[in-house]
Amino acid sequence: MAITSILRNFVGEPNTVTIVTDDTLATITTAGYVTAQATNIELLNNGEFQWTDTDIVLISYAPDFLVGFFVYDATTAAFVANPAASGVSSTLASGSILVGSAGNVATAVAMSSDATIIASGALTIANSAVTTAKINNAAVTSAKASPLLVQYVAVPITASEFNGMYAAPKLLLAAGGAGTMIVLHRCDIMMTFVAAAYAAGGVVAIQYDSTANGAGVIASTTLSAATYFAAASTGFVHNLGVVPQTYSTCANKGLYLSNITQAFTTGDGTMIAHLYYSIVPTV
Asked: CB of 143 within 8 A of CB of 149?
């Protein structure tokens, strides 16, 4: 495989150099190609071929005698596809993509890092490339999510907030806005025991709005006060409520944790409420 013809056409500046080769595009654009053809070029040219920076190189290459304009890169000793005026080159190396360079020029580069692409267009994401940190930093917000998707939030609850939620219900999730309603699917409350167990209190539930003394519209199943008297780290589950509520009492209301009868006392355990929910339209 070799260059079979090379000719400089002296027509002013820039000069046009015409080349015929039975090598492929991948070969003629590979670093060192011209160096490897040096002996052959000298025979065809009857001496060393002199390149200039302004040369426009018209090359007929394999397969099927495709034709394209190139420039000679003296640094790599290879040919580089020459962009058309006000456009980009009609040739692009297999598996490469066009990316705007720092100089605002469309440049062929190979996709790398977390993903690669091949000539067929198939994209492969590297193993372990999709991490929790990257998902959290991707601007994938609740506002952009479909109402059909189950969303999640973790809410810390201090011992003081739990002991005081009878009179001041603890906000778990703010209202979704006009024309919406929060549907709670599940809430797992994980308690880390410290030194003292909770006592007194009354039935615990998640409710719509901040009505004191656990008198709000119930949004979850209930748990007895004694359930929260645990003297060791444990978890408590509040599932979706079993009593249907009307939109008029639940629309555009936040979710709060509260209890009836009386306040809890003495406990110092800290908690995290893990909520799984959807925000659905009411109209």
From this structure: no
Give the pLDDT confidence score for residue 263 in this predicted structure.
Answer: 98
Cβ density class 124-134: b for 16+ within 10 Å, e for less: eeeeeeeeeee
Interval 246-264: pLDDT, tens: 778 899 999 999 999 999 9
Give the CATH fold of the 145-281 domain: Jelly Rolls (2.60.120)
Every domain of the chain and the residues it spans: 3-88, 92-128, 145-281
* CA dist., res. 219 & res. 244, Å (int): 9
Across 143-147, 148-152, 187-191, 252-256, least confident range: 143-147
Which residue type does 218 have?
A: I
Would the pTM count as exceeding 0.90? no
